[in-house]
Amino acid sequence: MSSSAKSDKPKPKVERILFLCLRNSSRSKIAQAYLQRFAPERFVCESAGLTTGKLTYVEKQVMLEDQLPIDEPSNTVFTFFNSGKTYDHVISVCDQMAEFKCATYPGSTPVTMWVFEDPAKFRGTKPQRIAKTREVRDRIKSAVKAFILGHTFAENLH
Q1: 14-153: which CATH topology?
Q2: Which helix (H) or strand (E) covers residue 109, if one does?
Q3: Domain residues of the chain, as ranges?
Q4: Full-model pTM
Q5: I need a surface site. Which of 25, 27, 33, 121 has the fewest CB within 10 A?
């Protein structure tokens, strides 16, 4: 195949993604950080919560293990909606108890639900909380990779 034929292939659309959780403290920021790491050329992503929150020390530590510092300020969905932002995909990463609260984003974008426990609610010794938080981080990482693969596969069908 000639180089000009390769360059004639249209570039994939850059999709806008919003990750939601209750406080925009860890799960949504973890998902955002992984999507930005794995596919920055394919997706522009943000994260928000119904309210704002702060990462716990354990959450920060677990993310630093994977070289993903996520210390940026928290956002609310209301800030994004009031500024007129729209998204191609809205993904909720709330736990099952809070799932119904995170199931909507104003506008017409449907919300996909990815259910993950809230690391801020973990109890036990520090090593136990770290282990549980790692599990959530790794599950989110896998979900983000599957999301990217699904979109890559769908694109190649066109």
Answers
A1: Rossmann fold (3.40.50)
A2: none
A3: 14-153
A4: 0.84
A5: 121
